């Protein structure tokens, strides 16, 4: 065995010696343009309601969505991701594909006010179904094929309202193909699809389900979302979605799945999105409130790590705050 002694010829601390030196040799950078800001839009009128489980996040009535999007736009964030909280829910989630639904109205208002800002919509049924599952329930289970038709209707209704990108998060098999075909046959050939391709059945979605009122009424989502123990399966899901016509793919959650992000990055050429989910957000916010960690440094470290792993774009509830921090540094 040959032992190479590098010290004292090599001193790694030389390249860490000053702020400028560190900035010059930095391998990964984070910019507002890398971020997507999620917004919860509620059909309930009145004032914005704080989400208890997510400090700093609100359910916004339709007339306040424009002001929130304005902040994102001013901070240099290129896109928002909309989640709807409807007044009425039923077995088939029909408020999800109502042309006058809460998301459809929010999309058209946003596009009128900010033609350039990209509006991405979450395409799913769980916020709109009385049972809280992401698809049609038959014989006590979530039925794949009957759900596809409804998801396609949701996506087309969002496109008709002006959405730039639709993002299916349901994890049914064949949804990307069903959505692409319907979009194309209705003339929306330029609307892109960002698929939640590798979406795991994760405990980190807890706070979101309070925010969106979308916790399943019975059982859980493990028959459709992925098992956290699997990574080969993530590649299969990603490849299938790309074959079906997805333009961009997502890994969700992000922080506990950096290996999945890294692996997918090395296997596909399309833009890779990572979702820094509600539980990841709230853990940092609560710990910072308790004085256990420094919020800014912790958030920057986490988001930098997600990019270093290979994500091009990050969906994060910290987006506004981060973009404002980045602007202050300039
Ligand atoms: C809807 C959906 C969920 C999230 C995004 N889209 C919830 C779920 O699958 O239960 C989670 C987002 C987050 O936790 O921030 N299917």
Low-confidence segments: none
From the N-terminal CA to the C-terminal CA, the straight-line distance is 50 Å
In CATH terms, the superfamily is Aldolase class I
Tally of strands: 12
- Structural class label: alpha/beta
Query: Number of helix segments?
Result: 11
Write the CATH fold name.
TIM Barrel
Second-tier CATH architecture: Alpha-Beta Barrel
Helix residue percentage: 25-40%
Sheet with the most strands: spatial strand order: 1-4-5-8-9-10-11-12
* CATH first level: Alpha Beta
Give the number of domains: 1
Order of helices and strands: HEEEHEHEEEHEHEHHEHEHHEH
Mean pLDDT: 97
**What's the story with the biggest beta sheet?**
8 strands, parallel, barrel
Strand proportion, as a percent range, falls in 15-25%
Shape: globular
Cα-based radius of gyration, to the nearest Å: 21 Å
Q: What compounds are bound to the protein?
A: ligand PBG
Detail the topology: elements first, then pairings.
Blueprint: H1 19-25, E1 35-42, E2 49-50, E3 58-61, H2 62-74, E4 79-85, H3 102-113, E5 118-123, E6 136-138, E7 141-143, H4 144-161, E8 165-168, H5 175-185, E9 192-199, H6 206-212, H7 232-244, E10 248-252, H8 258-267, E11 272-276, H9 278-289, H10 295-309, E12 313-316, H11 319-329
Parallel strand pairs: 1-3, 1-4, 1-12, 4-5, 5-8, 8-9, 9-10, 10-11, 11-12
Antiparallel strand pairs: 2-3, 6-7
Bound molecules: ligand PBG.
């Amino acid at each position: 065995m040959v032992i190479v002694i590098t010290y004292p010829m090599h001193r790694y601390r030389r390249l860490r010696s000053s702020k400028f030196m560190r900035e010059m040799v930095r391998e990964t950078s984070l910019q507002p343009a890398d971020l997507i800001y999620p917004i919860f839009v509620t059909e309930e009128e009145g004032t914005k309601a704080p989400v208890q489980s997510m400090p700093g996040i609100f359910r916004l009535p339709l007339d306040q969505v424009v002001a929130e999007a304005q902040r994102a736009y001013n901070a240099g964030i290129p896109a928002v991701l909309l989640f709807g909280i409807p007044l009425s829910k039923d077995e088939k989630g029909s408020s999800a594909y109502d042309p006058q639904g809460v998301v459809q109205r929010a999309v058209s208002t946003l596009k009128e006010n900010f033609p350039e800002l990209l509006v991405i919509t979450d395409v799913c049924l769980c916020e709109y179904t009385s049972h809280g599952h992401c698809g049609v329930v038959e014989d006590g289970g979530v039925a794949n094929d009957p759900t596809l038709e409804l998801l396609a209707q949701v996506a087309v209704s969002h496109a008709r309202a002006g959405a730039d990108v639709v993002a299916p998060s349901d994890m049914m098999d064949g949804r990307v193909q069903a959505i692409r075909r319907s979009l194309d046959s209705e003339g929306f050939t330029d609307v892109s699809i960002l698929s939640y391709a590798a979406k795991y059945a994760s405990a980190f979605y807890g706070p979101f389900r309070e925010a969106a009122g979308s916790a399943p009424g019975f059982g859980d989502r493990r028959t459709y979302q992925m098992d956290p123990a699997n990574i080969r399966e993530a590649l299969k899901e990603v490849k299938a979605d790309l074959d079906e016509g997805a333009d961009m793919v997502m890994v969700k959650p992000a922080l506990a799945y950096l290996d999945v992000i890294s692996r997918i990055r090395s296997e596909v050429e399309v833009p890779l999105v990572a979702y820094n989910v509600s539980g990841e957000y709230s853990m940092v916010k609560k710990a910072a409130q308790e004085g256990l960690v420094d919020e800014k440094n912790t958030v920057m470290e986490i988001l930098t790590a997600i990019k270093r792993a290979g994500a091009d774009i990050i969906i994060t509830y910290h987006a506004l705050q981060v973009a404002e921090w980045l602007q202050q540094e300039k």
